[in-house]
Write a structure and sequence with these properties.
alpha+beta; two-stranded antiparallel ribbon; Jelly Rolls; 269 residues; 2 helices
């Protein structure tokens, strides 16, 4: 028993010394471990060298992750009632003719707030004295093919120009030539520009003059049959003030007709 008690006493004494040494070691180690950690976690001031880089990186990340703010909505298009009469004439002989869709045209989407900028705007024409009607009919909002609703211009290449009054973002151009009969109009070309004379910075939105007979370059767009839905042309947000439309007769005669032209977009702020 004495031997065991002596042994236990010595063991306890040694353990006590070891614990004391460990505590001293840990106390000495504390400044090395915690002081650098505190320095790393301290916030950077706005004037510190890395602060601007950190803020720029955060702003860039937010910009990349931010979803698009542009909201699209169907363009408000009001169609006239169909007025087809008679039998289509010589349409089978028209080359590069687009096939009928066979169903109503789907809604055209554009940024919310898009409206018809052409309504009531001034119109000029290469034929200053129309055979039938008045040039003002083209932007008066009447899309019917009834008598007294359309303008008849002379033969050969003719064009009309709409002045929107200011530079605008144009998303679509919708035009009706004459939809009381199933006609195909030739050399239909739609251009936009900020130059009223259409000499500089002209953008062509549509061109089905496949043989360049109108002298504005050969186009790749297809001929199409006139309907009460009109021809909708995607302008893709092109910026311009003036809209010009060309034609060169139709499959029924050499004259050029316009019922209405609508230009959907927004003024440039």
């Amino acid at each position: 028993m004495k031997f065991n008690e002596s042994f236990n006493y010595k063991d306890k004494s040694r353990m006590s010394k070891n614990v004391s040494m460990i505590r001293i070691f840990l106390v000495a180690l504390l400044p090395i471990v915690f002081i650098p950690a505190c320095r790393k976690s301290s916030p950077q001031s706005a004037d510190s060298p890395g602060a601007a880089d950190t803020e720029t990186a955060t702003a860039t990340a937010d910009a990349v992750e931010e979803p698009s703010q542009v909201q699209l909505a169907p363009v408000p298009i009001e169609l006239p009632r169909p007025m087809f009469v008679g039998t289509p004439q010589n349409i089978r002989g028209v080359s590069r003719l687009a096939k009928p869709l066979g169903k109503p045209r789907p809604p055209f989407l554009a940024p919310a707030g898009t409206e018809n900028l052409a309504f009531g705007k001034p119109v000029s024409s290469s034929d200053e004295e129309p055979i039938i009607g008045e040039i003002e009919y083209i932007t008066d909002g009447d899309k019917s093919a009834a008598d007294g609703s359309y303008v008849e211009l002379g033969p050969f290449v003719q064009h009309i120009t709409i002045d929107l009054g200011a530079e605008c973002e144009i998303y679509a151009v919708l035009l009706w030539h004459y939809h009381k009969q199933a006609r195909v109009y030739f050399d239909v070309i739609v251009q936009v520009a900020n130059d009223p004379d259409f000499i500089t910075e002209v953008s062509t939105l549509f061109n089905n003059d496949d043989d360049n007979s109108s002298g504005l370059g050969a186009g790749r767009d297809l001929h199409y049959v006139e309907t009460h839905e009109g021809k909708l042309i995607d302008a893709k947000g092109t910026r311009a003030r003036y809209v010009r439309l060309y034609s060169k007769g139709n499959n029924a005669n050499e004259l050029n007709h316009y019922i209405e032209v609508e230009v959907f977009g927004k003024p440039v702020k």
